[in-house]
């Protein structure tokens, strides 16, 4: 009697392994071999006499190299002198690893590159060390290019940055995986920030992009000052130019430009920029408050207020003249009363007021003119010379 078991603890055989032959002769048929079936199998023979006999058999399933998924881009941080690229692959039979750069194999020990390999079944691993990264960084920073495509085309011409390929080989095949080593510095500040054009309510700004740190960069523009756009007064620009609107005429603003990439922001570049004066024929946008002016309101309202003020001044002047004339007439009438008052009260006077002044009313046509100083009127038929009555005779 023969029996077969799978694994060290005698687990049941998977359905893909079936004994065959009659009588059983210790054979197993593998249906649809796969890596899941790989491992040790135990064959046990027992005929009832003495202890059973056992044998251990290992099933090996071969497959081609498989590379572990790694990030396609490996950044080199600020100030780094050395960079490392890692690669791992598995396969049966064992996998051999090596490195290539733009179709050329890299020696394990070179002037710019060093790599080593180790095995941890079923995995094989390798580390590529790249030196003198700072040299390429300094050359790139000295001559930055504002065009990102030009930077990508520059990488194949240097010896440390750009594309590297990990190659895994075995008897079952070859696999490759590309990785890019790139600088990942914070960007340098923009240079030569300037005003391209100044309008009453807008500023057109331009600048020269600095070294982007090896990454694609954008620019943050902030405008601070009276009447600046409400917070956040920051504008994102993909290129080295931007127009900021919604500003006040004849106003000076602080303009700050900062470069930004995935590693952070650069130091700020700051200038002062002044908007131009508002022209006389500048169209007033609907719904926008008029610019500040010395006049308190529209011209029609100003004219109406001036007319009302002039009328009030004229009325006040007429009233003052009437009151002054009234006081004078009262003084004249008071002196006549002290010298004597006629029984008929002819010494009394009235004052009529009008908007044009005041004057005493004319005496009645049939009334005698008032006498002066209480003297008797002149006798009939004698007319005072020059209007002055004659002196009375001495007694």
UniProtKB/TrEMBL annotation:
Q: Which SUPFAM superfamilies match?
A: Fibronectin type III, Immunoglobulin
Write the record's keywords in alphabetical order, separated by commas.
Answer: Disulfide bond, Immunoglobulin domain, Membrane, Signal, Transmembrane, Transmembrane helix
**Where in this chain does the record put each Fibronectin type-III domain?**
189-281
Renumbered to this chain, the Basic and acidic residues biased-composition regions fall at 334-349
Report if keyword ATP-binding is assigned. no
Q: Which InterPro entries match?
A: Cell_Adh-Cytoskel_Orgn, FN3_dom, FN3_sf, Ig-like_dom, Ig-like_dom_sf, Ig-like_fold
- Start and end residues of each stretch annotated as Disordered: 1-21, 276-295, 330-395
Any Pfam family:
fn3
Residue stretches spanning the membrane: 300-324
Q: Which named protein is this?
A: Uncharacterized protein
Q: What is the species of this protein?
A: Gallus gallus (Chicken)
Lineage from the top down?
Eukaryota, Metazoa, Chordata, Craniata, Vertebrata
């Amino acid at each position: 009697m023969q029996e077969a078991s799978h694994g060290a603890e005698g687990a049941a055989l998977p359905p893909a392994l079936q004994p065959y032959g009659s009588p059983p002769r210790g054979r197993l048929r593998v249906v649809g071999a796969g890596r899941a079936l790989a491992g040790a199998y135990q064959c046990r023979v027992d005929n009832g006499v003495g202890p059973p006999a056992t044998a251990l058999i290992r099933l090996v399933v071969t497959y081609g190299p498989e590379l572990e998924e790694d990030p396609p881009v490996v950044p080199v941080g600020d100030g780094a002198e050395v960079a490392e690229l890692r690669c791992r692959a598995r396969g049966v039979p064992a996998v051999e690893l090596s490195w290539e750069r733009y179709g050329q194999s890299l020696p394990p020990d070179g002037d710019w590159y060093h790599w080593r390999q180790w095995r941890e079944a079923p995995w094989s691993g390798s580390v590529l060390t790249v030196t003198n990264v700072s040299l390429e960084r300094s050359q790139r920073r000295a001559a930055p290019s504002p065009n990102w495509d030009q930077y990508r085309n520059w990488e194949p011409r240097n010896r440390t940055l750009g594309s590297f390929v990990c190659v895994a080989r075995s008897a079952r095949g070859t696999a490759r995986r590309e990785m890019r080593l790139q600088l990942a510095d914070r960007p340098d500040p923009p240079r030569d920030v300037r005003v391209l054009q100044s309008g009453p309510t807008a500023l057109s700004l331009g600048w020269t992009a600095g070294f982007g740190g090896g990454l694609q960069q954008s620019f943050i523009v902030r405008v601070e000052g009276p009447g600046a756009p409400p917070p956040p007064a920051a504008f994102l620009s993909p290129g080295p130019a931007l127009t900021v609107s919604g500003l006040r005429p004849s106003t000076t603003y602080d303009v700050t430009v900062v470069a930004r990439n995935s590693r952070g922001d650069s130091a700020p570049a700051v200038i002062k920029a002044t908007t131009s004066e508002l022209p006389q024929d500048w169209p007033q946008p609907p719904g926008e408050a008029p610019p500040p002016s010395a006049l308190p309101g529209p011209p029609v309202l100003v004219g109406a207020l001036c007319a009302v003020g002039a009328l009030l001044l004229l009325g006040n002047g007429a009233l003052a003249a009437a009151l002054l004339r009234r006081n004078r007439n009262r003084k004249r009438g008071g002196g006549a009363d002290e010298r004597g008052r006629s029984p008929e009260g002819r010494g009394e006077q009235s004052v009529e007021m009008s908007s044009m002044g005041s004057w005493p009313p004319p005496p009645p046509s049939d009334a005698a003119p008032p006498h002066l100083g209480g003297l008797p009127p002149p006798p009939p038929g004698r007319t005072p010379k020059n209007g002055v009555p004659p002196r009375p005779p001495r007694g």
